[in-house]
Write a sequence for this structure.
């Protein structure tokens, strides 16, 4: 067995199984890293680097150990936090899993532990962003009858909202596209499929997510104007509270919200 080194760095693929494999390797090698980074990151110059090869069997052994120590909600907290894509999460998440495996009882409510607190707070942020995306997705009907929506969330929550829309619009064809991460999910009435587009595709020429006249259904603009009219009609001017409005509907989402876009008649 190798002894612990003070400057060791683990490199992994930033997947859940990859992280669990890294935990397995750490216990097996008796080498707990000072940092754990993604494959695209550059390790420190003089660090002792261990490149983790994701192994489902190793990951499964660690996961079964976690199941004995943590509740279902705590496990969901760990897996969901990964969707934050935060580089600062890697080491706290790794240490959380290591501590959970070693502990005699669950550590999930020990918020005095900085790793538990950091991972839990990250999970809450991702969960909140998921909720907002479920609220703020606005579909447009294309010429071929597909419903299209573009989003740009702070965290990679698109996989987390797909089940919601698959259930709610189970008989429709739709595409939700994450412009920042350049991928989407297409649903055709029975199964959602992850999709990407080649460079130069029309979707990249939609800075605010609005379909061009040639791409949209002939009645789409009429429905959009109706929605904007409704949005204005239910607004009670005497009760306007811009500060609360921006809190409930942050400005960073407005670009893709139909009710916040200028209509054809207002241009």
């Amino acid at each position: 067995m190798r002894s612990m080194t003070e400057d060791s760095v683990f490199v992994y693929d930033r997947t859940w199984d990859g992280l669990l494999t890294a935990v397995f390797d750490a216990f097996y090698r008796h080498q707990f890293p000072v940092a754990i980074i993604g494959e695209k990151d550059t390790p420190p110059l003089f660090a002792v680097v261990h490149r983790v090869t994701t192994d489902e069997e190793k990951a499964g052994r660690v996961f079964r150990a976690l199941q004995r120590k943590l509740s279902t909600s705590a496990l969901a907290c760990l897996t969901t936090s990964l969707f934050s894509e935060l580089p600062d999460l890697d080491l706290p998440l790794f240490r959380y899993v290591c501590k959970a495996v070693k502990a005699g009882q669950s550590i999930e409510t020990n918020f005095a532990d900085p790793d538990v607190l950091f991972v839990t707070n990250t999970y809450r942020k991702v969960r909140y962003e998921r909720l907002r995306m479920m609220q703020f997705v606005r579909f447009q009907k294309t010429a071929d009858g597909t419903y299209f929506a573009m989003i740009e969330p702070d965290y990679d929550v698109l996989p987390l909202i797909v089940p919601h829309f698959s259930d709610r619009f189970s008989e429709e064809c739709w595409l939700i596209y994450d412009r920042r991460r350049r991928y989407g999910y297409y649903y055709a009435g029975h199964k959602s499929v992850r999709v990407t587009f080649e460079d130069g595709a029309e979707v990249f020429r939609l800075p605010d997510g609005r379909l061009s006249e040639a791409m949209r259904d002939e009645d789409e603009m009429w429905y959009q104007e109706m929605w904007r009219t409704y949005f204005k009609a239910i607004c009670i001017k005497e009760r306007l509270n811009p500060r609360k409005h921006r809190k409930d509907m942050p400005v960073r989402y407005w670009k893709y919200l139909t009710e916040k876009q200028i209509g054809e008649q207002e241009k």
